[in-house]
Amino acid sequence: MHIPPRVLTIAGSDSGGGAGIQADLKTMLALGVHGMSVVTAATAQNSLGVQGFWELPVEAVRQQFRSVVDDIGVQAVKTGMLASAELVETVADLLAELDVPVVVDPVGVSKHGDSLLAADALDVLRQKLLPVATVVTPNLHEVEQLTGTRVTDESEMRRAAEAVLAFGPRWVLVKGGHLSGEAADLLFDGDREHWYRSPRLDNTHTHGTGCTLASALASFLAGGDEPPRAMERAKAYLTRAIEGGFPLGGGVGPVDHGWRWRDGDRPAGGG
């Protein structure tokens, strides 16, 4: 009997279905892994923005984690919205027990500019969570939030990666999606530099891109890929998902997590 790789997402719920836990689980299903979840916060969210969020108690987060890890087990973990300093520290302590790849998406603000992380949580994220990360995946706004390093063109992305790497993750993926020109991302471990490029697509419906990429990366890591190969495959999946992004509501619609099925393709599996 085939048992797919198991991936755990620790993140917030997006009531609109485009990002957060919902995007993570859709991505994992599309890539042939078994997705599990620890919900850290509930958001009231739609295509126009985040109207409110409520973080869960620390004990609720801890118990969800224990229930999954102690019985089912995990082969990779992805973190997203953690909301508060207390939750960041709790999750970091729990992850320190595991010997599996951890992808940290350091979610600070939503696609619409709404804050999703308390200001006092940044130091805890830097000091406790980033050191347990296999790969951390900041966009350029998050790089600046974490390090104070502002990136205005592609030539500055390695310097930004070095600044994030100083906090202790094994790899840093600096996402260049906010720059002009082609969509270029840099994966760096302090020695090896890997660039990933794709054409910039003329589609404004990109809600959930960060969650989707991090979840795809975790899915391929769970299947045994090393970070450079996992990122190559994750980038290819995300590019097609962005291409298929569709309008919902009156604002920014989501990427298409299920494009494989609409193409008549089958899930690729985690490996």
UniProtKB/TrEMBL annotation:
Origin: domain of life: Bacteria
GO cellular component: cytosol
GO MF terms held by the record: ATP binding; hydroxymethylpyrimidine kinase activity; phosphomethylpyrimidine kinase activity
Pfam families per the UniProt record, alphabetical: Phos_pyr_kin
Keyword ATP-binding in record: yes
Any single GO BP term: thiamine biosynthetic process
Protein name: Phosphomethylpyrimidine kinase
Protein species of origin: Wenjunlia vitaminophila
